[in-house]
Design brief:
Elements: E1 2-15, E2 18-31, E3 35-39, H1 46-53, E4 61-66, E5 69-70, H2 76-86, E6 87-91, H3 102-106, H4 108-112, H5 117-130, H6 146-158, E7 164-168, H7 176-193, E8 197-201, H8 204-209, E9 212-217, E10 220-226
Parallel strand pairs: 3-8, 3-9, 6-7, 7-8
Antiparallel strand pairs: 1-2, 1-4, 4-5, 9-10
Helix pairs in contact: 5-6, 6-7
Amino acid sequence: MSIVSVRNLRREYTQGAFTVHALRGVDLDIAAGEFTALMGPSGSGKTTLLNLIGGLDEPTAGEITVDGQDLSRMKAGDRSELRLRRLGFVFQSYNLIPVLSAVENTEFVLMLRGESAANRRQRAMETLAAVGLKGMEHRRPSELSGGQQQRVAVARAIAGEPALVLADEPTANLDSTTGHELIELMQRLNRERGLTFVFATHDPKVMEAARRVVRLEDGQIASDERKGS
């Protein structure tokens, strides 16, 4: 079953007198439980594609279905609700709230959903333990290393049990060892919890770990490789 289905997806931007064709008719299906990397040089369209799948941007043309819902037919408020309820995001820059502790950052999405304070605190504590941050729950981002901050970001992304986690260059600001540890963490979450991960990345370590690598060039899919096939 496809959790993401994209058909003839196009995204164009106007820069002065020029039109930039970021995506040029992309077709892609991603099944539930996949661990997929979108690879390609800067300007290839991978981040644009990730943002469109996440409902953070709107296509110029084409169709996007995520978790059974047609994003092209949804109003902005409905797309926001889909992101809140069904999607998790991990960004290159962590995007943690500086004045909140790790546990408060982790439970933030659950708070926006209206879950009770007791329930969201319990789930956030359990999720932080699952990503290896037990004992660090009350530290603020400034008191955590880059790798620990990104683990908090992963915890925040998965605490609400999303159907899909979208990660944009999640290892870019990490050293090699820490980046490898983060990839192993996400592999474990994929394997043990069945979480679907889609990455936009330049990192060869992510490409090696991914079970599927979709390469984009000039806004089109140049290759689609499944490991072991």
